[in-house]
Amino acid sequence: MLGQGRIRRVVTGHDENGKSIVVSDSFAPAVRTSPARPGHYSTEIWRTAGAPAPVANEPDPTTGPRQLKPPKHGTVIRVSEIPPESEAVRNFDAAAAKKIFESMGQVDASTFREGGRHPLMHRTETIDYGIVLSGELTLILDHSEVQLKAGDMVIQRGTNHAWSNRSDKPCIIAFILVDGKFEPGLEQEPDSH
Q1: Is the previous residue joined to 170 through a cis bond, with omega within 30 degrees of 0?
Q2: Given a cut of 50, is residue 193 above it in pLDDT?
Q3: Model confidence over 13-60: pLDDT tens digits?
Q4: What is the CA radius of gyration of the chain?
Q5: CB 175 within 8 A of CB 130
Q6: How far apart are CA 171 and CA 135, in angstroms?
Q7: What is the pTM of this model?
Q8: Sign of torsion, CA 110 86 163 143?
Q9: Residue 56 and residue 28: Cα distance in Å, rounded?
Q10: Which of 7, 35, 146, 178 is in Cβ range 3.0-4.6 Å of 139 for a Cys bridge?
């Protein structure tokens, strides 16, 4: 694994006789950045469009527009490199926060309101498995925070949250997102104040 979103991705498949082969072995092509967050890289590794996922030699599903959430009944795996949090990010207003999520293809995920806990608070109707690969990261929730270090794993179940790197080194974290459905009573956006 290299920095700046450069992640080696090996994709397997089948030849015309049904034998296993390597279809590609290169850096994952879908690396996204945002000028508003220098040093932040999000590399989409793979995406499935449903369950059960077709096992075939389908084309690379990571090309095309950026989408924060997986498709309906689908999954997505991505690796994010989160730089130490800048003063600029800590001072985003609600409009700047919405623009960040718009660049991720999910403007409605942003839950930040003026006076809220963190400008990048957001919520998606997904189950997210987070695995800290290197560095440190703080998970911010509505009323608490959790410090995470390399090797720690998070199961994030549709909660309102943000990620803050309060260290002096980048954090690399892998996320596997699974499309979900809120239980009755959890559909409403939480009050972020």
Answers
A1: no
A2: no
A3: 999 999 999 999 999 999 998 888 888 999 999 999 999 998 888 899
A4: 17
A5: yes
A6: 4
A7: 0.87
A8: negative
A9: 19
A10: 146
Show Cβ contacts of residue 67 under 8 Å, excluding neighbours closer than 6 positions: 76, 104, 105, 106
| Residue 142 CB contacts under 8 Å (≥ 6 apart), including other chains | 117, 159, 160, 190, 192
Across the chain, which distance is largest between two alpha carbons, in Å? 61
Which of 18-32, 126-140, 177-191 is predicted with the least confidence, judged by mean pLDDT? 177-191
Residue 97 is inside which H or E element, if any?
helix 94-103
Which residue bears the tokens 């369950």?
A: 51
**Cα–Cα dist 10/24, whole Å:** 6
Distance CA 105, CA 142 (A): 23
Q: Which residue has the tokens 């794993």?
A: 153
> Beta partners for 42?
32, 80
